Amino acid sequence: MMTEKIKNIQHRLENDPKFQEAVGKIRPQWSLWGIAGVILFFFVPEIITAIWQEPLVHWAHLHSITEPLAPMRKLYAMLEEMFADGVSWVNIGLGVLLLWWAARSRQHSDL
Question: What pTM did the predictor assign?
């Protein structure tokens, strides 16, 4: 019963032109700008975090305790927590998947 529902949904999505158009719009292009965009948004922040994690955590902590405005203190505390967690493997994984998707779509368009 559940497998029939999943197959039905999959069949409707495969034949829906609006869905196919939406997927085509979000697919990164295999061009200099498409690859550079994925690298800049997914890999560069993680490289920066890996290299300068300790100074970033210290900077965010210092501002979280000295900032006079409460919303800004909260923002710096969130930044401190984010940098203290280290590299986001989810972000790196998404970047790799997007690059793979772009490369795969390029291979299929060359055929």
Answer: 0.66
